[in-house]
Amino acid sequence: MPKILVSNITRLVSLKGWTMDQLAEKTGMKSGKQFYAWKDHEPGIDKVTATADALNVSTDYLLGRNKSNNLTDEQLTVAMDAPAHLSKENQQKAIDFMNYLVAQEEKKDESDRKD
């Protein structure tokens, strides 16, 4: 579990454009390096909860128990409105990337069903 936890955290931090130190600041931790230590030992539930809250996801999602991020309507609206501020070229890149991600998830889900 610790590896998936750290993997999910680093991925979400990257998606938000944050650094690990910024996440640490938002969660009351001293340094972003502390998150990487979670690969070797499980953190307390208070730290996992604070991290999930800062990243705006559930603790189950961070822990890999729930693969669905269950975005709120507000989060989906913000995500869908973001491309309107991009150039036409970057809008197309965003659409292409979203299509790529959907295809990857479908492959992964198909693979999981086979196992």
3D architecture notes:
It is a single chain. By secondary structure, the protein is an all-alpha fold. The protein has helices at residues 2-16, 20-27, 33-36, 45-55, 59-62, 73-81, 88-114. Helix content is 68%, strand content 0%. The protein is globular. It has 7 helices and no strands. The longest helix is centred in the C-terminal third of the chain and has 27 residues, at 88-114. The model has no long low-confidence stretch (mean pLDDT 82). Helix 2 (20-27) crosses helix 4 (45-55).
Short summary:
With 115 residues, the chain is mainly α. It is 68% helix and 0% strand. It contains seven helices and no strands.
Mind telling me the C-alpha Rg? 16 Å
Number of strands: 0
Unreliable residue stretches: none
Helix content: 55-70%
Averaging pLDDT over every residue, what do you get?
82
From the N-terminal CA to the C-terminal CA, the straight-line distance is 19 Å
Strand content: under 5%
Task: Compile the SSE list and pairings.
Layout lengths: L1 H15 L3 H8 L5 H4 L8 H11 L3 H4 L10 H9 L6 H27 L1
Helix pairs in contact: 2-4
What would the keywords be for this entry?
single chain; mainly alpha; 115 residues
